[in-house]
Amino acid sequence: MQISEKSVGIVETKYFDIEEKLTLDSGAQLGPVRVAYETYGELNEHKDNAILLLHALTGDAHAAGYNSPEDKKPGWWDDMVGPGKAFDTDKYFVISSNMLGGCSGTTGPCSVNPETGKPYGLSFPVITIEDSVKVQKKLIDFLGVKKLIVAGGSMGGMQALEWSIAHSDMVEAVIVIASTSRLTAQGIAFNAVGRNAILSDPNFNNGDYYDKEHQPEKGLAIARMIGHITYLCEESMHNKFGRRFQDKDTPNFDFNIDFQVESYLAHQGQTFVDRFDANSYLYITKAVDYFDLAQKHGSLKSAFEKTNARFLVMSFTSDWLFPTSQSKEIVQALIQAGKDVSFCEIESPCGHDAFLLEFETQTKIVKSFLSKSSGGIDDKQ
Q1: CA neighbor of 381 nearest in space, from 39, 7, 9, 46
Q2: Which of 96, 319, 348, 373 is catalytic?
Q3: What contacts 286, CB < 8 A, 6 or more positions away?
Q4: Among 55, 62, 167, 352, which one carries the catalytic annotation?
Q5: 352 is catalytic
Q6: Domain with CATH 3.40.50.1820 in the chain
Q7: Tens digit of each residue's pLDDT (9 = 90 or more) over 33-74
Q8: Residue 247: its pLDDT value, please?
Q9: In this structure, which CATH number among 1.10.1740.110, 3.40.50.11590, 3.40.50.300, 2.60.120.10 belongs to the domain 188-283?
């Protein structure tokens, strides 16, 4: 495999262990906790050139580069992370960690409960976005970071907002992309249908399926299909598939796959079950549902009065899951709170997934924003 000079190259996923028990928002105790993370670039002498990348719902710590020469695909935000890219690893120490409750190296329901010697399953405590940030803060302290920029899209944007409020003494700049300060009832409804697809799978077995011959693959695949519809938009689905039949010009006149869009969703569902855990899907979507800054702090304005950071908020014209109106709500509250905020709505036909695809436009905007947030980083290299 030939690796581009703009790539961070071969990277290793590392692990950080939190030995003490953590008190979660629910009041439950959890520990020890293992955190999977990757880093790109070098932390400078002043320890103030760090950027924490926060992943979306089903992401992981592998944001850029390749874990081995055999990897066919790079990390999930590879177009944005590397030498000369938006998150320039020649200037910044970039960190990406897997969320608490995940299934890609960080402690979650598929992890072994040290008290029983078996996977947690549904005995894993319910978590929140705030809990995930508490765990990330432990990692950041372990790495020795003193000042921080946080950036994320979708669920990652929620975590970035929480970071800016919970750790205002550390966070200097925040980049929130295609995100929201709280889900709408419609967003919660989509998550609920996905969870019910998993819970209704006959192989779910009340979350205790790890040593069983059959896994709740159908339920998880359906959940992914539902979610994936929300990541696209009518225009992108029409452009990709229209009403074209799959491999023929006439209908089957049965209930098997007829249309190309059906085949696409089935493929997305099947590939998802090969890399994700059904229980993690339950826990992480619930954490997203619970996130509500206005409810927690009395209002969005009150929430943002607690932050000292500069903000960049970006949205996409065709994103109907987290539409521009929700980004503008964040921007308006930041303005009311007297904070420094920049906003940009990007024209795109890619729906919610645009934050993973429209990297060229995002790169220009992010680079401009970071150049004003660097605090003299260039002089400290």
Answers
A1: 46
A2: 319
A3: 126, 127, 191, 195
A4: 352
A5: yes
A6: 14-183+292-380
A7: 999 999 999 999 999 999 999 999 999 999 999 999 999 999
A8: 82
A9: 1.10.1740.110
Q: Find the DSSP H helices in 25-154.
A: 129-142
* 208 flagged as catalytic: no
Q: Is 299 marked active-site? A: no
Examine residue 202 and say whether the peptide bond preceding it is cis (omega within 30 degrees of 0). Answer: no
Catalytic residue among 7, 96, 111, 154: 154
pLDDT tens, 133-181? 999 999 999 999 999 999 999 999 999 999 999 999 999 999 999 999 9
Classified by CATH at the fold level, domain 14-183+292-380 comes out as Rossmann fold (3.40.50)
Instruction: Tell me the pLDDT tens digit for each residue of 304-335.
Output: 999 999 999 999 999 999 999 999 999 999 99
Residue 115 has pLDDT above 50, yes or no: yes
Delimiting residues of CATH 1.10.1740.110 domain(s) in the chain? 188-283
The mean of the pLDDT values for the chain is: 95
Please state the rounded mean pLDDT for residues 348-376. 90
